Amino acid sequence: MLALLFILFAGLAIGCALGVVGQRNPLYSAISLIGVFISLACLYVMLAAPFIAAVQVIVYAGAIMVLVVFVIMLLNVEQEERGRKRLKFLVPTAVALAAILIAEVAFILVSVQEFRVTPTNATSDVGLTHSIGSQLFTRYLLPFEITSILLLMAIVGAMTLARRGGLLSPSARVIPGAQQFTRSMIDPDAAPDDLTLVETDTTDEAARLLGFDHRSHRDDSE
Amino acid sequence: MEPQLSWYLALSAILFTIGVTGVIIKRNVIAMFMCIELMLNAVNLTFVAFASFFQDVTGQLFVFIVMTVAAAEAAVGLGIIIAIFRNRESLDVDDASILKL
């Protein structure tokens, strides 16, 4: 019974993984990848790791894939065109490497089949949230803290990377309050040394006082 | 018949191989990124299988940390992809093979 379930989910995972590589449209690849994540979560449940299975669905299939799909939609990715191959030897190389690794796997399956590990004890609490949490906050506290610092750096890095460059971009909004802007900061077409000053509350108002349509530039840029 | 440890390791190796093949073959940055996620998941399966068969929770803790790293990687990686797209109007890695703008 368990073997049948394993074969089902393993087949689903491999099929979806092949779909990730085989599809030309990145959106279809993303949906296949969600299939891989879900079937791996099922395998985790079979391995008596319900917490990891839940986190797999929530973090991977939920958060990360939503981010990926969002970027695919945002960038309006077209399908890969067929012609114009990159380095021609890459595909045969990749297939050969894959064949070698799968041959090794087959060797393991044939030769290590006799290696019997003690069967999973049903009453064990390994994999439950309690045991993971108690280990995470006692013995593995340092890796946990380092991971939190990593996440903080990732947030700052992502914001820095995704922010539009330049002094004050057309789509930027400035916080309300009396501020002084020069024309060169607001108008993309103005000369960089055009320092006509205007004192206003927002960039929109500054643009209006300087006498050009600020919003049309915003629409162009988006 | 119970699934053996070697079955899980074999599945993990196959998934990892498919991920490597994808990274080599694909030209779209986002598709390559997803293949990297596939490789991370294959390694996670190895961790969970060993943790389950040896009754040790450490493997699952490492899966937890790998997932966090993957989330951070997703945030920064997609930020880089957006920056590349903004500069080059393309997601083809061959168009971004020279780092100079």
The gyration radius over C-alpha positions of chain A equals: 27 Å
What percent strand of chain B? under 5%
The biggest sheet of chain B amounts to: none
Average pLDDT for all residues of chain A:
79
Write down the oligomeric state: heterodimer
Structural class of chain A: mainly alpha
Could you name the ranges of chain B where pLDDT drops below 50 across 5 or more consecutive residues?
none
Helix content of chain B: over 70%
Radius of gyration of chain B: 17 Å
Condensed summary:
The complex is a heterodimer of chains A (222) and B (101). Helices cover 63% and strands 4% of the residues of chain A.
Provide a descriptive summary of the structure in words.
The complex is a heterodimer of chains A (222) and B (101). Chain A has 222 residues and is mostly helical. Chain A is built from 9 helices and 2 strands, in the order H-H-H-H-H-H-E-H-E-H-H. A two-stranded antiparallel sheet of chain A has the order 1-2. In chain A, helix 1 runs antiparallel to helix 2 and helix 2 packs antiparallel against helix 3 (50-75). Chain A starts with a helix and ends with a helix. Chain B has 101 residues and is an all-alpha fold. Chain B has one domain (5-93): Helix Hairpins, CATH 1.10.287.3510. Chain B is built from 3 helices and no strands. Chain B has helices at residues 5-25, 29-53, 58-88. Chain B is elongated and about 55 Å long. The termini of chain B are far apart. At the A-B interface, helix 1, helix 2, helix 3, helix 4 and helix 5 of A face helix 1, helix 2 and helix 3 of B.
Task: Kindly list the characteristics that best describe this protein.
heterodimer; A: 222 residues; mainly alpha; two-stranded antiparallel ribbon; 63% helix; 4% strand; B: 101 residues; Helix Hairpins
